[in-house]
Structures are given as C-alpha cells and as structure tokens.
C-alpha cells in the first residue's frame, strides 16, 4: 500500500478538524430544495441553476401539484410549464429541460431516477453538480462533491484549494476528504456560506474556524470574481492607464496625445494654446 506524503496527511488532518468545527456550527445542514422523491429532487435541482433555492421552493409546489410524475410532466403542454416557471430566469429553457428529462426517465429508466452519475448526466439539464446532489441526497451514494459558488468561495478562503474551477476544486476535495463526508461537506459549506461566510460581508467574528482560516478578517475579495473595470474620467484610458482598443482611436487617441504633450509642456492651460479658444485666451492675456 502506497504511503501518503506527510504534507498530505497533515492537510487532511487540518481539514478534518476544521470541518468538524463547521459541522458543530451547522448541525442542521441539509439540502434546502423541498422534495418528496428522487424525481422531485432532480427536477428541483435542474431548476435551481442560476436561481435561488428559495425561489425554486416557491415554484415547485404548483409544478408538482399539476404534474406529479414523470408521465404527467412528459405529457405536459410546454407553454403551461413555462407559465408556472415564468418567475425564474431562463424559464423557457428550464421548461424544455424538465419535460425532456421526464420523457427520458420513461424511455430509458422505466420512470425511475437512475443511480449512477453517467446515466444522470446523460439526462437533459443535468450536469455533474446536479448528479452529485441527486446521488448524495436521494441515494446516499455520492460519486463526487457538489461545488457551487459557496463551496468554491469558502474552500478558497480556508486555503483548502488554490484552484479556480469547480471541476478541479472537486478533485481536491475528494482527495482531502473520505467518501462518507462528501455529501455533508457540501451541505455544511453551503450553510456556512449563506449564514456566515457570505461573499460581500463575511462575518469573521462569528465564525468558529477563524484560527484555521488564512483569510480571516480579510476575506472580502477572496473567492470572488474580480470587480469589473470601470472607465475613468479620461475616456481614452482604462483605470490602469492603458489605451483603449485601436478600433476606435480618434477621440481617445487624440486626448491621450494631448495629455502626453501637456505633461512635457507644463501646466494644462499652456498646453491648450493650439486650440482656437486657447489662441484667443493667449491674445487676451497679451493685451492685458
């Protein structure tokens, strides 16, 4: 049996201890998508893409009341499903996905939700994250770790990973934690992200793992997308002082050239002597 490097063993020990503290802080961590069956769970998870669980839980009661089974949803009028989902973003695409998914469950799996990741990701609207949710929550047999924005942000803040994509972060978490922790790991980190370690205002003073967190009390910009670059008052330059694209050089390039000349020639008022107004101003000063 191959021995694990000492640094890996130490990292696993630290992660295990930190996770235990987080579990103690959030003993009620669970999947917050309301469902009564694996079918309802997979549909709700598909709907949750780029949408809050709160909104999904507001929409699914009517959805499941009208179309409670794969048979009913597969036969549903798409326009009616779209109407029920209309409060969501991308509701037309989601209506297409869940009606197609219901039909695929009937055709390929006898109306049952499959229990392997390969079969799940072959269904409409189902990616690796959705498959991991279904396998872990419905069947207690996760084949990976769910990495959403909360999990990504917190694992980066805790120093568990330096990766920036969900796929690579998942691989690292699967290496750091045993399989029996994979499902609860994601639920716990999601709870922590929603309640304490938020993206914009992490409540580090209320966090139970600040002593183990290298980002503690300075975590605001860790694990978040960089802020969008805004244009400065000089329309010809970016905030970093770089010229804009050469596709539109006229006014921007002209301003940049004038600014550069002004630096060499002296104060801005003297540098404007080449304009009509500047000439009149110079003449007026000469008469005075």
Task: Kindly describe this structure.
The chain has 288 residues and is mostly helical. Among the domains are: 38-195, Hypothetical protein, domain 2 (Endonuclease III, domain 1); 256-287, no CATH class. It has 14 helices and no strands. It has helices at 6-25, 38-47, 53-66, 70-74, 78-85, 91-109, 117-121, 128-139, 149-157, 166-176, 179-195, 250-265, 268-271, 276-287. Helix 1 crosses helix 11 (179-195), helix 5 crosses helix 6 and helix 9 crosses helix 11. The chain starts with 5 loop residues before the first helix and ends with a helix. The model is unreliable at 232-239 and 241-288 (pLDDT under 50).
Summarize the structure.
The chain has 14 helices and no strands.
Keyphrases for this structure?
Endonuclease III, domain 1; 288 residues; mainly alpha; 56% helix; 14 helices
Query: Can you give the helix content as a percent range?
Result: 55-70%
CATH superfamily of the domain at 38-195: Hypothetical protein, domain 2
DSSP, total strands: 0
Main sheet? none
Class computed from helices, strands and strand pairing: mainly alpha
Structural shape: globular
Helix and strand run: HHHHHHHHHHHHHH
Helices and strands in order:
Layout lengths: L5 H20 L12 H10 L5 H14 L3 H5 L3 H8 L5 H19 L7 H5 L6 H12 L9 H9 L8 H11 L2 H17 L54 H16 L2 H4 L4 H12 L1
Helix pairs in contact: 1-11, 2-8, 5-6, 9-11
